[in-house]
Description:
This protein is an alpha/beta fold. The chain has 16 helices and 21 strands.
Amino acid sequence: MRVAVIGGGPSGLTTLKHLLTAHNFFPGIDPIEARLFESEDSIGGTFRYRTYENAEVGLCSLAMLHYTDFRYPIEAPDFLSTKEYCNYLVTYCKKFNLFPQIQLNTRVIRVQRNDENDTKHIIHTLRAGEVSRWACDAVAICSGLHVIPNIPDIPGLSNVPLTLHSSEFKNTQQLGTEKNILILGSGETGMDIAYLAIKAKTRSVTLSHRDGFFCAPKRAPETYFFGIAPSSTSRGNVPYDVGAASLFDTSYVHPILRNSFLPWEYYDRFAKYTTWLVSGTKAGLDQWIGEISPERFHASKIFFNKSTKAVPYISAQYRRSSIINSLRSFVTHVPIIDTKGKKIDLAPWPRKIKENGVVEFIENGRSEADFMRKKICKPDIVILATGYKQCFSFLDDDYPRASEANIRSIWKEGYKTVSFIGFVRPSFGAIPPLAELQAQLWIAMLLNRIPSPVLPIDTAHYRLQTPRDSRISYGVDHESYAYQLALDMGATASFTQVILLGWKTMLSWALGANINAKFRLVGPWKWSGAKEVMEGEVWDTITRRRFFFGHVTLSLLPILLFGSLNTILFVFTIIYEGLERLFYRIRG
Protein backbone atom coordinates (compact mmCIF):
# COMPACT_ATOMS: atom_id res chain seq x y z
CA MET A 1 0.00 0.00 0.00
CA ARG A 2 1.17 3.52 -0.84
CA VAL A 3 -0.08 6.51 1.15
CA ALA A 4 0.54 10.22 0.67
CA VAL A 5 0.62 12.59 3.64
CA ILE A 6 0.09 16.28 2.88
CA GLY A 7 1.51 18.62 5.52
CA GLY A 8 4.53 18.46 7.82
CA GLY A 9 3.00 19.79 11.02
CA PRO A 10 2.34 17.65 14.12
CA SER A 11 -0.67 15.94 12.51
CA GLY A 12 1.24 14.96 9.38
CA LEU A 13 4.27 13.72 11.29
CA THR A 14 2.34 11.39 13.59
CA THR A 15 0.35 10.08 10.61
CA LEU A 16 3.57 9.34 8.72
CA LYS A 17 5.11 7.64 11.73
CA HIS A 18 2.11 5.36 12.26
CA LEU A 19 1.96 4.47 8.57
CA LEU A 20 5.63 3.50 8.52
CA THR A 21 5.38 1.40 11.68
CA ALA A 22 1.94 -0.17 11.16
CA HIS A 23 3.39 -3.53 10.10
CA ASN A 24 4.99 -3.84 13.55
CA PHE A 25 1.55 -3.78 15.18
CA PHE A 26 -0.60 -5.64 12.67
CA PRO A 27 0.67 -9.18 11.93
CA GLY A 28 0.49 -10.18 8.29
CA ILE A 29 0.60 -6.60 7.01
CA ASP A 30 3.32 -5.64 4.56
CA PRO A 31 5.23 -2.40 5.26
CA ILE A 32 3.35 0.65 3.99
CA GLU A 33 5.16 2.95 1.58
CA ALA A 34 4.41 6.49 2.72
CA ARG A 35 5.61 9.91 1.62
CA LEU A 36 5.04 13.24 3.30
CA PHE A 37 4.93 16.42 1.21
CA GLU A 38 5.65 19.74 2.92
CA SER A 39 5.65 23.08 1.08
CA GLU A 40 7.96 24.84 3.56
CA ASP A 41 11.68 24.28 4.07
CA SER A 42 11.24 22.61 7.45
CA ILE A 43 8.68 20.72 9.51
CA GLY A 44 6.51 22.20 12.25
CA GLY A 45 3.79 23.98 10.29
CA THR A 46 2.02 26.75 12.19
CA PHE A 47 4.22 26.29 15.24
CA ARG A 48 7.27 27.25 13.19
CA TYR A 49 5.98 29.70 10.61
CA ARG A 50 2.98 31.45 12.18
CA THR A 51 4.12 32.17 15.71
CA TYR A 52 5.51 35.08 17.73
CA GLU A 53 7.81 35.80 20.65
CA ASN A 54 7.09 34.02 23.94
CA ALA A 55 4.28 32.00 22.35
CA GLU A 56 3.34 28.71 23.98
CA VAL A 57 1.93 25.71 22.16
CA GLY A 58 -1.79 26.38 22.38
CA LEU A 59 -1.31 26.77 26.14
CA CYS A 60 -1.62 22.99 26.35
CA SER A 61 0.34 21.05 28.95
CA LEU A 62 3.24 18.86 27.93
CA ALA A 63 1.69 15.75 29.49
CA MET A 64 -1.24 16.09 27.10
CA LEU A 65 0.70 17.42 24.12
CA HIS A 66 3.56 15.12 23.28
CA TYR A 67 3.29 11.88 21.35
CA THR A 68 2.57 8.69 23.26
CA ASP A 69 5.83 6.88 22.59
CA PHE A 70 8.22 9.83 22.63
CA ARG A 71 8.14 11.57 26.00
CA TYR A 72 9.93 14.42 27.71
CA PRO A 73 11.44 13.67 31.14
CA ILE A 74 8.84 13.87 33.90
CA GLU A 75 10.59 16.87 35.46
CA ALA A 76 10.29 18.95 32.26
CA PRO A 77 8.29 22.21 32.39
CA ASP A 78 4.53 21.88 32.03
CA PHE A 79 4.34 24.19 29.01
CA LEU A 80 6.60 24.45 25.96
CA SER A 81 7.37 27.43 23.80
CA THR A 82 6.73 26.98 20.09
CA LYS A 83 10.50 26.90 19.50
CA GLU A 84 10.95 24.10 22.04
CA TYR A 85 8.06 22.19 20.50
CA CYS A 86 9.51 22.46 17.00
CA ASN A 87 12.82 21.12 18.33
CA TYR A 88 10.86 18.24 19.86
CA LEU A 89 9.25 17.49 16.48
CA VAL A 90 12.65 17.41 14.78
CA THR A 91 13.95 14.99 17.40
CA TYR A 92 10.82 12.87 16.95
CA CYS A 93 11.52 12.61 13.22
CA LYS A 94 15.10 11.58 13.89
CA LYS A 95 14.07 9.04 16.54
CA PHE A 96 11.72 7.23 14.15
CA ASN A 97 13.75 7.89 10.99
CA LEU A 98 11.00 9.89 9.29
CA PHE A 99 13.13 12.37 7.36
CA PRO A 100 13.94 10.00 4.45
CA GLN A 101 10.21 9.92 3.68
CA ILE A 102 9.68 13.69 4.00
CA GLN A 103 9.95 15.88 0.91
CA LEU A 104 10.45 19.52 1.95
CA ASN A 105 9.94 22.54 -0.32
CA THR A 106 7.41 20.40 -2.17
CA ARG A 107 3.96 21.87 -2.69
CA VAL A 108 1.01 19.66 -3.57
CA ILE A 109 -0.76 21.41 -6.43
CA ARG A 110 -3.34 18.78 -7.29
CA VAL A 111 -4.86 15.55 -6.02
CA GLN A 112 -6.88 13.66 -8.61
CA ARG A 113 -8.54 10.30 -9.09
CA ASN A 114 -6.49 7.69 -10.90
CA ASP A 115 -8.43 5.79 -13.53
CA GLU A 116 -5.39 4.26 -15.23
CA ASN A 117 -4.53 1.42 -12.83
CA ASP A 118 -5.27 -0.06 -9.43
CA THR A 119 -3.97 2.89 -7.40
CA LYS A 120 -6.72 5.33 -6.48
CA HIS A 121 -5.06 8.77 -6.41
CA ILE A 122 -2.39 10.79 -8.19
CA ILE A 123 -0.51 13.45 -6.24
CA HIS A 124 0.86 16.31 -8.36
CA THR A 125 3.70 18.20 -6.67
CA LEU A 126 5.79 21.24 -7.52
CA ARG A 127 9.40 21.47 -6.39
CA ALA A 128 12.00 23.91 -7.71
CA GLY A 129 9.80 24.60 -10.72
CA GLU A 130 9.47 20.92 -11.63
CA VAL A 131 6.12 19.11 -11.54
CA SER A 132 6.08 15.45 -10.44
CA ARG A 133 3.38 12.81 -10.07
CA TRP A 134 3.06 10.06 -7.49
CA ALA A 135 0.34 7.41 -7.57
CA CYS A 136 -0.96 6.09 -4.26
CA ASP A 137 -3.76 4.12 -2.64
CA ALA A 138 -4.76 6.60 0.07
CA VAL A 139 -4.26 10.25 1.02
CA ALA A 140 -3.99 11.79 4.48
CA ILE A 141 -4.63 15.53 4.35
CA CYS A 142 -2.84 17.14 7.29
CA SER A 143 -2.45 20.68 5.98
CA GLY A 144 -3.97 22.09 9.16
CA LEU A 145 -6.55 24.59 10.32
CA HIS A 146 -4.15 27.52 10.57
CA VAL A 147 -2.72 28.33 7.15
CA ILE A 148 -4.80 30.84 5.17
CA PRO A 149 -5.34 34.09 7.14
CA ASN A 150 -8.95 35.08 7.69
CA ILE A 151 -9.24 38.79 6.84
CA PRO A 152 -12.46 40.42 8.11
CA ASP A 153 -14.39 42.80 5.87
CA ILE A 154 -14.19 46.11 7.73
CA PRO A 155 -14.92 49.25 5.70
CA GLY A 156 -12.05 51.71 5.82
CA LEU A 157 -9.42 49.28 7.11
CA SER A 158 -7.02 50.74 4.55
CA ASN A 159 -7.24 54.09 6.39
CA VAL A 160 -4.96 52.71 9.11
CA PRO A 161 -1.22 53.30 8.48
CA LEU A 162 -0.28 49.65 9.11
CA THR A 163 -2.37 46.48 9.22
CA LEU A 164 -0.92 43.07 10.08
CA HIS A 165 -2.46 39.65 10.38
CA SER A 166 -1.30 37.83 13.49
CA SER A 167 0.59 35.39 11.25
CA GLU A 168 2.82 38.33 10.25
CA PHE A 169 3.41 39.49 13.82
CA LYS A 170 6.68 38.13 15.20
CA ASN A 171 7.89 40.45 17.98
CA THR A 172 7.20 43.71 19.81
CA GLN A 173 9.75 45.60 17.72
CA GLN A 174 7.07 45.71 15.01
CA LEU A 175 4.93 47.82 17.36
CA GLY A 176 7.36 50.72 17.32
CA THR A 177 7.37 53.38 20.05
CA GLU A 178 4.43 55.42 21.36
CA LYS A 179 2.03 53.83 18.89
CA ASN A 180 -1.71 53.25 19.36
CA ILE A 181 -2.42 49.55 18.83
CA LEU A 182 -5.80 48.03 17.97
CA ILE A 183 -6.06 44.23 18.11
CA LEU A 184 -9.08 42.61 16.48
CA GLY A 185 -9.94 39.24 17.98
CA SER A 186 -10.09 38.08 21.59
CA GLY A 187 -8.93 34.49 21.22
CA GLU A 188 -5.71 33.19 22.70
CA THR A 189 -3.58 34.81 19.99
CA GLY A 190 -5.31 38.17 20.44
CA MET A 191 -4.83 37.97 24.20
CA ASP A 192 -1.17 37.03 23.85
CA ILE A 193 -0.48 39.94 21.52
CA ALA A 194 -2.44 42.36 23.72
CA TYR A 195 -0.24 41.38 26.66
CA LEU A 196 2.95 41.77 24.63
CA ALA A 197 1.72 45.16 23.41
CA ILE A 198 0.88 46.55 26.86
CA LYS A 199 4.31 45.48 28.12
CA ALA A 200 6.02 47.16 25.15
CA LYS A 201 6.61 50.89 24.57
CA THR A 202 3.13 51.57 23.23
CA ARG A 203 0.92 54.59 23.88
CA SER A 204 -2.37 52.67 24.05
CA VAL A 205 -3.67 49.16 23.48
CA THR A 206 -7.27 48.39 22.53
CA LEU A 207 -8.65 44.87 22.18
CA SER A 208 -11.79 44.43 20.08
CA HIS A 209 -14.15 41.45 20.37
CA ARG A 210 -17.26 40.17 18.60
CA ASP A 211 -19.20 38.40 21.35
CA GLY A 212 -17.01 38.09 24.40
CA PHE A 213 -14.65 35.44 25.71
CA PHE A 214 -14.18 33.20 28.73
CA CYS A 215 -10.68 33.30 30.20
CA ALA A 216 -9.90 30.12 32.10
CA PRO A 217 -6.62 29.35 33.87
CA LYS A 218 -4.32 26.84 32.25
CA ARG A 219 -3.56 25.55 35.75
CA ALA A 220 -5.91 24.82 38.61
CA PRO A 221 -5.90 28.04 40.67
CA GLU A 222 -3.40 28.66 43.46
CA THR A 223 -5.78 30.09 46.04
CA TYR A 224 -5.47 31.82 49.38
CA PHE A 225 -7.77 30.47 52.14
CA PHE A 226 -8.52 32.92 54.97
CA GLY A 227 -5.45 34.90 54.00
CA ILE A 228 -3.11 31.92 54.12
CA ALA A 229 -0.99 31.49 50.99
CA PRO A 230 -0.94 28.08 49.30
CA SER A 231 2.08 25.92 49.98
CA SER A 232 4.69 26.62 47.35
CA THR A 233 5.89 23.93 44.97
CA SER A 234 8.58 24.08 42.32
CA ARG A 235 6.15 23.13 39.54
CA GLY A 236 2.90 24.78 40.61
CA ASN A 237 -0.58 23.32 40.53
CA VAL A 238 -1.54 20.72 37.93
CA PRO A 239 -2.57 21.94 34.45
CA TYR A 240 -6.33 21.84 34.02
CA ASP A 241 -6.22 19.80 30.80
CA VAL A 242 -4.87 16.81 32.74
CA GLY A 243 -6.58 17.59 36.03
CA ALA A 244 -9.84 15.65 35.81
CA ALA A 245 -10.72 12.02 36.47
CA SER A 246 -12.10 10.03 33.54
CA LEU A 247 -13.86 7.23 35.44
CA PHE A 248 -17.65 7.60 35.00
CA ASP A 249 -17.01 10.75 32.98
CA THR A 250 -15.96 9.04 29.74
CA SER A 251 -15.35 5.42 30.78
CA TYR A 252 -18.11 3.21 32.16
CA VAL A 253 -20.75 5.76 31.22
CA HIS A 254 -24.28 4.61 30.45
CA PRO A 255 -25.41 5.72 26.96
CA ILE A 256 -28.39 7.61 28.42
CA LEU A 257 -26.14 9.69 30.68
CA ARG A 258 -23.47 10.08 28.02
CA ASN A 259 -25.96 11.44 25.50
CA SER A 260 -27.72 13.66 28.02
CA PHE A 261 -26.91 17.27 28.81
CA LEU A 262 -26.11 16.54 32.46
CA PRO A 263 -22.29 16.21 32.10
CA TRP A 264 -22.21 19.51 30.21
CA GLU A 265 -24.33 21.14 32.92
CA TYR A 266 -21.96 19.97 35.64
CA TYR A 267 -18.85 21.31 33.94
CA ASP A 268 -20.62 24.52 32.95
CA ARG A 269 -21.46 25.23 36.57
CA PHE A 270 -18.03 24.09 37.67
CA ALA A 271 -16.33 26.57 35.33
CA LYS A 272 -18.55 29.51 36.26
CA TYR A 273 -18.72 28.98 40.01
CA THR A 274 -15.04 28.15 40.34
CA THR A 275 -14.07 31.43 38.70
CA TRP A 276 -16.61 33.30 40.84
CA LEU A 277 -15.37 31.66 44.03
CA VAL A 278 -11.74 32.64 43.50
CA SER A 279 -12.11 35.95 41.64
CA GLY A 280 -15.64 37.26 42.17
CA THR A 281 -16.96 36.98 38.62
CA LYS A 282 -18.50 34.18 36.54
CA ALA A 283 -17.44 35.78 33.25
CA GLY A 284 -13.95 34.30 33.53
CA LEU A 285 -10.98 34.25 35.89
CA ASP A 286 -10.71 37.85 37.21
CA GLN A 287 -12.63 38.87 34.09
CA TRP A 288 -14.96 41.78 34.88
CA ILE A 289 -15.78 42.76 31.30
CA GLY A 290 -16.11 41.06 27.91
CA GLU A 291 -18.50 38.36 29.01
CA ILE A 292 -20.02 36.05 26.42
CA SER A 293 -23.65 36.73 25.48
CA PRO A 294 -26.16 34.75 27.61
CA GLU A 295 -27.47 32.65 24.71
CA ARG A 296 -23.94 31.38 23.99
CA PHE A 297 -22.47 31.37 27.50
CA HIS A 298 -22.39 27.64 28.20
CA ALA A 299 -19.51 25.16 28.41
CA SER A 300 -21.04 23.13 25.59
CA LYS A 301 -20.80 26.07 23.17
CA ILE A 302 -17.51 27.86 23.79
CA PHE A 303 -13.76 27.50 23.44
CA PHE A 304 -12.03 28.30 26.69
CA ASN A 305 -9.38 31.00 26.39
CA LYS A 306 -6.33 29.91 28.39
CA SER A 307 -4.28 33.04 27.71
CA THR A 308 -4.91 35.06 30.87
CA LYS A 309 -1.91 37.40 31.17
CA ALA A 310 -3.78 40.31 29.56
CA VAL A 311 -6.91 39.94 31.72
CA PRO A 312 -5.72 42.01 34.73
CA TYR A 313 -5.01 44.93 32.38
CA ILE A 314 -8.48 44.58 30.82
CA SER A 315 -10.31 44.25 34.14
CA ALA A 316 -8.43 47.02 35.95
CA GLN A 317 -11.02 49.66 35.00
CA TYR A 318 -14.04 47.49 35.72
CA ARG A 319 -13.47 45.61 38.99
CA ARG A 320 -16.35 46.13 41.40
CA SER A 321 -16.36 45.89 45.18
CA SER A 322 -19.24 44.76 47.36
CA ILE A 323 -19.83 43.32 50.80
CA ILE A 324 -20.42 39.86 49.33
CA ASN A 325 -17.26 40.07 47.25
CA SER A 326 -15.24 41.21 50.26
CA LEU A 327 -16.52 38.27 52.31
CA ARG A 328 -15.80 35.86 49.46
CA SER A 329 -12.30 37.27 49.06
CA PHE A 330 -11.67 36.89 52.79
CA VAL A 331 -12.50 33.19 52.57
CA THR A 332 -10.67 32.43 49.31
CA HIS A 333 -9.17 34.32 46.40
CA VAL A 334 -6.42 34.35 43.83
CA PRO A 335 -3.96 37.26 44.01
CA ILE A 336 -4.79 40.28 41.86
CA ILE A 337 -1.86 41.31 39.70
CA ASP A 338 -0.73 44.91 40.04
CA THR A 339 -0.73 46.44 36.55
CA LYS A 340 1.09 49.56 37.79
CA GLY A 341 -1.49 51.83 36.19
CA LYS A 342 -1.33 50.22 32.75
CA LYS A 343 -4.58 49.16 31.12
CA ILE A 344 -5.96 47.59 27.97
CA ASP A 345 -9.16 49.12 26.63
CA LEU A 346 -11.81 46.63 25.59
CA ALA A 347 -14.00 47.57 22.63
CA PRO A 348 -16.81 46.09 20.54
CA TRP A 349 -16.15 45.07 16.94
CA PRO A 350 -15.45 47.92 14.50
CA ARG A 351 -18.33 49.05 12.32
CA LYS A 352 -15.99 51.03 10.10
CA ILE A 353 -12.83 53.10 10.10
CA LYS A 354 -13.36 56.65 8.94
CA GLU A 355 -11.18 58.45 6.41
CA ASN A 356 -9.36 60.24 9.24
CA GLY A 357 -8.45 56.84 10.75
CA VAL A 358 -10.86 57.03 13.70
CA VAL A 359 -12.65 53.75 14.48
CA GLU A 360 -16.43 53.65 14.83
CA PHE A 361 -17.45 50.66 16.93
CA ILE A 362 -20.65 48.64 16.87
CA GLU A 363 -23.17 49.45 19.60
CA ASN A 364 -23.44 46.16 21.50
CA GLY A 365 -25.23 47.53 24.56
CA ARG A 366 -22.39 46.62 26.91
CA SER A 367 -20.22 48.63 29.27
CA GLU A 368 -17.26 48.67 26.91
CA ALA A 369 -19.39 50.29 24.20
CA ASP A 370 -20.34 53.10 26.58
CA PHE A 371 -16.70 53.50 27.54
CA MET A 372 -15.38 53.60 23.97
CA ARG A 373 -18.07 56.06 22.91
CA LYS A 374 -16.36 58.62 25.12
CA LYS A 375 -12.93 57.94 23.62
CA ILE A 376 -11.28 58.51 20.28
CA CYS A 377 -9.64 55.36 18.96
CA LYS A 378 -7.27 56.22 16.13
CA PRO A 379 -4.85 53.31 15.75
CA ASP A 380 -1.43 53.51 14.16
CA ILE A 381 -1.34 49.72 13.85
CA VAL A 382 -4.16 47.19 13.54
CA ILE A 383 -3.34 43.54 14.22
CA LEU A 384 -5.86 41.03 12.93
CA ALA A 385 -6.01 38.13 15.39
CA THR A 386 -8.96 36.84 13.41
CA GLY A 387 -7.87 33.27 12.83
CA TYR A 388 -7.64 31.30 9.62
CA LYS A 389 -9.86 29.73 7.01
CA GLN A 390 -9.65 26.36 5.35
CA CYS A 391 -8.67 25.98 1.73
CA PHE A 392 -8.38 22.77 -0.28
CA SER A 393 -7.69 24.22 -3.71
CA PHE A 394 -5.36 21.30 -4.50
CA LEU A 395 -8.23 18.80 -4.33
CA ASP A 396 -10.22 18.05 -7.46
CA ASP A 397 -13.91 18.88 -7.23
CA ASP A 398 -14.96 15.25 -6.80
CA TYR A 399 -13.05 14.96 -3.51
CA PRO A 400 -14.74 15.60 -0.16
CA ARG A 401 -13.70 18.51 2.04
CA ALA A 402 -12.99 18.47 5.77
CA SER A 403 -16.46 19.77 6.59
CA GLU A 404 -17.94 16.70 4.85
CA ALA A 405 -15.93 14.18 6.88
CA ASN A 406 -18.87 12.64 8.75
CA ILE A 407 -17.02 9.64 10.20
CA ARG A 408 -15.47 11.00 13.41
CA SER A 409 -14.46 14.13 11.44
CA ILE A 410 -11.76 12.01 9.76
CA TRP A 411 -13.23 10.66 6.52
CA LYS A 412 -16.48 10.85 4.60
CA GLU A 413 -18.66 7.77 4.34
CA GLY A 414 -17.81 6.04 1.07
CA TYR A 415 -14.44 7.84 0.78
CA LYS A 416 -12.34 5.95 3.30
CA THR A 417 -9.07 6.38 1.37
CA VAL A 418 -9.16 10.17 1.89
CA SER A 419 -8.70 11.36 5.46
CA PHE A 420 -8.51 14.72 7.19
CA ILE A 421 -6.23 14.48 10.21
CA GLY A 422 -6.13 17.35 12.72
CA PHE A 423 -9.22 19.20 11.52
CA VAL A 424 -11.01 19.37 14.87
CA ARG A 425 -10.52 21.90 17.64
CA PRO A 426 -10.95 20.94 21.29
CA SER A 427 -12.61 23.40 23.66
CA PHE A 428 -9.92 22.58 26.23
CA GLY A 429 -7.01 20.40 25.16
CA ALA A 430 -4.83 20.16 22.06
CA ILE A 431 -5.01 19.08 18.44
CA PRO A 432 -1.77 16.98 18.20
CA PRO A 433 -2.83 14.19 20.61
CA LEU A 434 -6.23 13.99 18.93
CA ALA A 435 -4.50 13.82 15.54
CA GLU A 436 -2.44 10.88 16.81
CA LEU A 437 -5.62 9.00 17.73
CA GLN A 438 -7.27 9.97 14.44
CA ALA A 439 -4.30 8.60 12.50
CA GLN A 440 -4.37 5.35 14.48
CA LEU A 441 -8.08 4.83 13.83
CA TRP A 442 -7.89 5.68 10.13
CA ILE A 443 -4.90 3.40 9.49
CA ALA A 444 -6.51 0.53 11.41
CA MET A 445 -9.65 1.03 9.33
CA LEU A 446 -7.67 1.04 6.06
CA LEU A 447 -6.11 -2.26 7.11
CA ASN A 448 -9.50 -3.72 8.12
CA ARG A 449 -8.32 -4.15 11.71
CA ILE A 450 -11.06 -2.41 13.72
CA PRO A 451 -13.67 -4.37 15.73
CA SER A 452 -16.67 -3.07 13.78
CA PRO A 453 -17.39 -0.45 11.12
CA VAL A 454 -17.48 3.15 12.33
CA LEU A 455 -20.77 4.75 11.33
CA PRO A 456 -21.69 8.45 10.97
CA ILE A 457 -23.75 8.41 14.15
CA ASP A 458 -23.15 8.73 17.85
CA THR A 459 -21.41 12.11 17.74
CA ALA A 460 -23.53 14.45 19.86
CA HIS A 461 -21.78 13.62 23.14
CA TYR A 462 -18.37 14.88 22.00
CA ARG A 463 -19.30 17.74 19.66
CA LEU A 464 -19.56 21.31 20.87
CA GLN A 465 -23.06 22.68 20.41
CA THR A 466 -21.93 25.82 18.62
CA PRO A 467 -24.51 28.05 16.90
CA ARG A 468 -25.06 27.35 13.21
CA ASP A 469 -23.62 30.70 12.17
CA SER A 470 -20.35 30.15 14.06
CA ARG A 471 -17.16 30.49 12.01
CA ILE A 472 -15.75 27.46 13.81
CA SER A 473 -18.13 24.50 13.61
CA TYR A 474 -15.66 21.68 14.25
CA GLY A 475 -15.29 21.99 18.03
CA VAL A 476 -15.10 18.90 20.23
CA ASP A 477 -14.73 18.02 23.89
CA HIS A 478 -11.20 16.63 24.11
CA GLU A 479 -11.86 13.95 26.74
CA SER A 480 -15.03 12.58 25.14
CA TYR A 481 -13.67 12.66 21.59
CA ALA A 482 -10.40 10.96 22.53
CA TYR A 483 -12.25 8.20 24.35
CA GLN A 484 -14.63 7.68 21.42
CA LEU A 485 -11.74 7.30 18.96
CA ALA A 486 -10.09 4.77 21.26
CA LEU A 487 -13.39 2.94 21.68
CA ASP A 488 -13.82 2.73 17.90
CA MET A 489 -10.50 0.93 17.48
CA GLY A 490 -10.83 -1.33 20.53
CA ALA A 491 -8.21 0.45 22.61
CA THR A 492 -10.17 1.15 25.80
CA ALA A 493 -9.00 -1.06 28.64
CA SER A 494 -11.57 -2.54 31.01
CA PHE A 495 -11.37 -2.34 34.79
CA THR A 496 -10.41 -6.02 34.89
CA GLN A 497 -7.57 -5.50 32.43
CA VAL A 498 -6.05 -2.50 34.22
CA ILE A 499 -6.32 -3.97 37.72
CA LEU A 500 -4.14 -6.86 36.53
CA LEU A 501 -1.48 -4.27 35.65
CA GLY A 502 -1.16 -3.14 39.28
CA TRP A 503 -2.83 -0.71 41.67
CA LYS A 504 -0.86 2.31 40.44
CA THR A 505 -1.82 1.80 36.81
CA MET A 506 -5.42 1.17 37.87
CA LEU A 507 -5.65 4.42 39.87
CA SER A 508 -3.93 6.37 37.10
CA TRP A 509 -6.43 4.92 34.62
CA ALA A 510 -9.41 5.87 36.81
CA LEU A 511 -8.31 9.24 38.19
CA GLY A 512 -6.20 10.48 35.30
CA ALA A 513 -7.27 12.40 32.23
CA ASN A 514 -7.50 10.74 28.82
CA ILE A 515 -3.83 11.03 27.96
CA ASN A 516 -3.14 8.91 24.88
CA ALA A 517 -0.91 6.43 26.71
CA LYS A 518 -4.08 5.15 28.39
CA PHE A 519 -5.18 3.88 24.98
CA ARG A 520 -1.94 2.00 24.33
CA LEU A 521 -2.37 -0.40 27.27
CA VAL A 522 -4.52 -2.64 25.07
CA GLY A 523 -5.78 -2.62 21.51
CA PRO A 524 -4.25 -2.69 18.04
CA TRP A 525 -1.54 -0.14 18.87
CA LYS A 526 -0.62 -1.70 22.23
CA TRP A 527 2.77 -0.40 23.38
CA SER A 528 5.02 -1.88 26.04
CA GLY A 529 5.94 1.55 27.43
CA ALA A 530 2.35 2.62 28.16
CA LYS A 531 2.32 1.18 31.69
CA GLU A 532 5.46 3.14 32.57
CA VAL A 533 3.86 6.38 31.33
CA MET A 534 0.71 5.67 33.35
CA GLU A 535 2.68 5.02 36.54
CA GLY A 536 5.03 7.94 35.90
CA GLU A 537 3.61 10.99 34.13
CA VAL A 538 -0.09 10.28 34.58
CA TRP A 539 0.40 9.40 38.24
CA ASP A 540 2.34 12.64 38.64
CA THR A 541 -0.62 14.67 37.35
CA ILE A 542 -2.79 13.07 40.05
CA THR A 543 -0.43 13.51 43.01
CA ARG A 544 0.24 17.15 42.09
CA ARG A 545 -3.40 18.16 42.39
CA ARG A 546 -4.33 20.43 45.28
CA PHE A 547 -6.98 19.16 47.68
CA PHE A 548 -10.04 21.31 46.91
CA PHE A 549 -9.36 22.66 43.41
CA GLY A 550 -8.17 19.29 42.24
CA HIS A 551 -9.06 16.13 44.14
CA VAL A 552 -12.45 17.37 45.36
CA THR A 553 -13.81 19.34 42.40
CA LEU A 554 -12.24 17.36 39.55
CA SER A 555 -12.20 13.82 40.95
CA LEU A 556 -14.33 13.19 44.02
CA LEU A 557 -17.46 15.17 43.13
CA PRO A 558 -17.83 14.02 39.50
CA ILE A 559 -17.05 10.39 40.41
CA LEU A 560 -19.67 10.42 43.18
CA LEU A 561 -22.27 12.19 41.04
CA PHE A 562 -21.77 10.38 37.75
CA GLY A 563 -20.85 7.09 39.41
CA SER A 564 -24.15 7.04 41.30
CA LEU A 565 -26.17 7.94 38.22
CA ASN A 566 -24.38 5.39 36.05
CA THR A 567 -24.91 2.66 38.66
CA ILE A 568 -28.64 3.41 38.82
CA LEU A 569 -28.95 3.43 35.03
CA PHE A 570 -26.97 0.21 34.54
CA VAL A 571 -28.98 -1.59 37.26
CA PHE A 572 -32.24 -0.33 35.77
CA THR A 573 -31.15 -1.50 32.31
CA ILE A 574 -30.26 -4.98 33.59
CA ILE A 575 -33.62 -5.31 35.36
CA TYR A 576 -35.56 -3.95 32.39
CA GLU A 577 -33.83 -6.24 29.89
CA GLY A 578 -34.31 -9.22 32.22
CA LEU A 579 -38.03 -8.52 32.58
CA GLU A 580 -38.31 -8.01 28.84
CA ARG A 581 -36.73 -11.41 28.13
CA LEU A 582 -38.97 -13.02 30.73
CA PHE A 583 -42.05 -11.41 29.17
CA TYR A 584 -41.21 -12.70 25.68
CA ARG A 585 -40.40 -16.15 27.07
CA ILE A 586 -43.81 -16.33 28.77
CA ARG A 587 -45.56 -15.16 25.60
CA GLY A 588 -43.59 -17.50 23.38
